[in-house]
Amino acid sequence: MKKSCGLRGYCLCLINMFMLLLVARSQLTSDFYSSSCPNLSKIVRREVQKALMNEMRMAASLLRLHFHDCFVNGCDGSILLDGGDDAEKSAIPNLNSVRGYEVVDTIKSSVESACSGVVSCADILAIAARDSVLLSGGPSWKVLLGRRDGKVSNGTLANSALPAPFDPLDTIIAKFNDAGLNLTDVVSLSGKHRTSALVIV
Length: 201
Ligand SMILES: *[C@@H]1O[C@H](CO)[C@@H](O)[C@H](O)[C@H]1NC(C)=O
Ligand SMILES: *[C@@H]1O[C@H](CO)[C@@H](O)[C@H](O)[C@H]1NC(C)=O
Ligand SMILES: *[C@@H]1O[C@H](CO)[C@@H](O)[C@H](O)[C@H]1NC(C)=O
Fold this sequence. Notes:
Ca(2+) binds at residues 69, 72, 74, 76, 78, 88. This protein is mainly α and 201 residues long. It contains nine helices and no strands.
């Protein structure tokens, strides 16, 4: 079976859970995969580039996918999990609007062929979001790596934690603060919904 991010093996999930316990307090690093998957950044960059050549709008979609993942239990790839009555995928902010799952699966397959069972889907989302911004002419940043994939998808939490377009501005700012983000991040990620956010900065 093709390894994808949505349908993860139960064993891998268990291993990830133990790894999560082990590394919960350790720091992410930019060279986390430098020996286990040295070509990782090249592979992700190439696949994102292909996806954008096919459809430029995918850049915004991949950034949004990472953003919507991170607001629910951290950047743990849980937005990619299938199934369950209360999945993040089917939460109101995500259903029929989050897109790019198939691009993430393509990137994951390429990464798996180069280094199998090593790189988390959460890290792939983080790199793909950075590359999407960069390849659209935006700024670049160093992506810290070593995230473990979560195995809980919480649609209820997605409905409450993600900023809604009809939230008042102070609620949006508070939700960003809860995720460790500030006003600059509100403007970058949410400004397109709220012209008022642009006015106050
Ligand atoms: C990395 O990619 C280069 C070619 O781009 C290849 O020659 C090399 O074998 C790859 N390294 C690994 C560890 O896969
Ligand atoms: C989902 O999140 C809510 C709110 O934080 C929490 O009460 C609930 O227990 C969580 N459900 C799961 C399955 O983790
Ligand atoms: C938000 O945080 C970033 C990174 O730490 C910083 O560069 C920026 O100035 C901050 N913005 C505000 C409005 O505090």
